[in-house]
Amino acid sequence: MMRTRPLKVALLGCGVVGSEVTRIITTQADDLAARIGAPIELAGIAVRRPNRVREGVPADLLTTDAMALVKRGDLDVVVEVIGGIEPVRTLITTAFEHGASVVSANKALLAADGASLHAKAVEHGVDLYYEAAVAGAIPLIRPLRESLAGDKVNRVLGIVNGTTNFILDKMDSTGAGYSEALDEATALGYAEADPTADVEGFDAAAKAAILAGIAFHTRVTIDDVHREGITEVTAADIASARKMGCLVKMLAICERSADGRSVTARVHPAMIPLSHPLASVREAYNAVFVEAEAAGRLMFYGPGAGGAPTASAVLGDLVAACRNKLAATTGAGESAYTQLPVSPMGDVVTRYHISLDVADKPGVLAQVATVFAEHDVSIDTVRQQGKDGEASLVVVTHRAPDAALSATVSSLRKLDTVRGVASIMRVEGE
Amino acid sequence: MMRTRPLKVALLGCGVVGSEVTRIITTQADDLAARIGAPIELAGIAVRRPNRVREGVPADLLTTDAMALVKRGDLDVVVEVIGGIEPVRTLITTAFEHGASVVSANKALLAADGASLHAKAVEHGVDLYYEAAVAGAIPLIRPLRESLAGDKVNRVLGIVNGTTNFILDKMDSTGAGYSEALDEATALGYAEADPTADVEGFDAAAKAAILAGIAFHTRVTIDDVHREGITEVTAADIASARKMGCLVKMLAICERSADGRSVTARVHPAMIPLSHPLASVREAYNAVFVEAEAAGRLMFYGPGAGGAPTASAVLGDLVAACRNKLAATTGAGESAYTQLPVSPMGDVVTRYHISLDVADKPGVLAQVATVFAEHDVSIDTVRQQGKDGEASLVVVTHRAPDAALSATVSSLRKLDTVRGVASIMRVEGE
């Protein structure tokens, strides 16, 4: 079965992930050839700085002209590990136009413009794979797209950003505040010098968009995803969560609405019960919990980032793309036939944990409870703590629409007896 | 893209899983057609008792002549959910010969004779898929075969039998003995009237054989798998595990040897640390932990049995097989190129927890320690408890070959001061 002609593969980008991909292609060449049915030939590696030392990367393959590389016309697969929107979008579409399948780890591009890329791939009869774009090494896109292709997914609940999970886990295990935990994450290399993309939820929102589109067979872009970061999570929130038997986790949540006619996608910190499988996900690990009608509750767990784990996902896609090239076929592509619209955050129905600073005098609870009732938000439990004329009131609600909760909070702020709303956090996974 | 001709699918068996498969094919017809690119037409359902009432199953499709059904010659895919070796093997090979791909949930057959079935499928240019054969709804075979196709798996450690996990979990949470926990499992429908296949490890051994073959790109049959059941696990073992910060779990363990030249596969009860992700798998849930060189530590978790979860896995395979039929191609099949041999249990290297009943007099520990040293089995910790002239000695070893441990235990039994070996249990997952 072994075909003599090798499969020509080009690499765009050779940073942490690209170097690891190159290393595996080189050192595991025999295994990859046996699994594909033909050897891989590295045809070129596009980099910005060709003179940088890259151990194990053949220097003669380096080029700064990525466009010329993807235009060669003899490539079977292009692996893109540069990241960002442009020039990558143009490079990928040019690769398609020249007959190459593409394996990408680019969550930002897929979340912004996946639909048009998929259409281009179909137009040119090639594959577009991107397992590495969500949750690093964890097989997730292929299981959702293929293993669950005969099932109906109703909810995806995931810890898809290792940096924020590390920070929240540190806050939980040490009692540290946000800044202190962020400093530790930075020192250990879990957070970048500018942590905005992680801590403000942009990274998780891109992944949520990709997961929602695949899970519900529709199209969701990052602009459709409601996004809140973790910068305002306090040690008090974490302690309050513990009192409820919960942990605070940064979650990406994609849900089908109760009537099945729309979907929602959001990322925000939330409390989840300690008994939930996601609660045991510590440090920088990722995990994604999937609820499907027939399958029930599934969870996928593993390292969500890093050179080698991301390379593992890229290589899996590369083997698939190469096999398809050999068989002159393509794999399962985009499935967006449901065309389900994405509802706004106000339509999301969930539970809330609200912490209020209130005057410590009689009648405050009655006033607060009246405001909740006026907005049809039903209260599950209330905890009152008072000292020195000041008090805090922690209210946990039953399930209510996000819009109703927002309106409730606006009204609460107008009460003379409410001195401030210390925190609002959703309660998920019950 | 929608082709007019429907894909003809026949079902062999219509019990708990088959009824659920039929229900989904019927009620989710539009979704399945959109995902496949053509509608599914149920061409026939072979059953033993056609007069049994099966809600939602079209009576005119039922036949008792399974062989005639698979010989029709116009079938695209045959779904086999009968189980057992014969007549199923003959039915499946006949289906291949008549051009049909096969989706099977049959772990016993795949573990006994997967290689020849795969060869037959290749010979006739059709697919053989069996995601449902291992760990029910959990996507596992496709992730191992495809997502990790560019990685090197070194170890698979799984809870793949829900019945035994339920029993051990009950023993742990209630302090019950084995018989009492088994009775509860039977009453709740988690154990069959004859629980032998589950509690003696035959079911888990079949799954271990399948997983080992796929993970290491070689061939492993159920006869290669070392098998010990849970019938001798006592409440004392569970309590002793807890003292070490461990739980007792029934594990399927597939490992590549340190030199990479052979593999081992085994199922037996073992102690694992409470901090291990598998420790949080309660009740009848399944989970499989995979260690790969680039990916690191992955875990897949979900319901391991039941009609609907198993049907979810069958339907995922059915969609894949139908897509391939439409594209006139086949998916990734067997990969057994490494031809790694399976080493015997004696070559397995792991840690041991040994509980001895000994005479409560001076010098016993020295005698026992000498026996361990003579067999080159290094002791990690010893715990001594004595009362009324009798004592127990709990020894936990460092890593040692299984053969050395067996020889040690034989020698210990010959000591006058050792009244009995109360239990031997391996310690895994560290």
Automatic annotation (TrEMBL), chains A, B:
Oxidoreductase is among the record's keywords: yes
The entry's keywords: Amino-acid biosynthesis, Methionine biosynthesis, NADP, Oxidoreductase, Sodium, Threonine biosynthesis
Alphabetized InterPro entries for the sequence: ACT-like_dom_sf, ACT_dom, Asp/hSer_DH_NAD-bd, HDH, HDH_cat, HDH_CS, NAD(P)-bd_dom_sf
Enzyme class: oxidoreductase
Cofactor entry: a metal cation
Any one Pfam family match given in the protein's UniProt record, by short name: Homoserine_dh
Pathway: Amino-acid biosynthesis; L-threonine biosynthesis; L-threonine from L-aspartate: step 3/5; Amino-acid biosynthesis; L-methionine biosynthesis via de novo pathway; L-homoserine from L-aspartate: step 3/3
ACT domain residues: 353-426
Catalytic activity: L-homoserine + NAD(+) = L-aspartate 4-semialdehyde + NADH + H(+); L-homoserine + NADP(+) = L-aspartate 4-semialdehyde + NADPH + H(+)
E.C. no: 1.1.1.3
Similarity remark: Belongs to the homoserine dehydrogenase family.
Matching NCBIfam families: PRK06349.1
PANTHER family registered for this protein in UniProt: HOMOSERINE DEHYDROGENASE
Role, per record: Catalyzes the conversion of L-aspartate-beta-semialdehyde (L-Asa) to L-homoserine (L-Hse), the third step in the biosynthesis of threonine and methionine from aspartate.
Name this polypeptide is given: Homoserine dehydrogenase
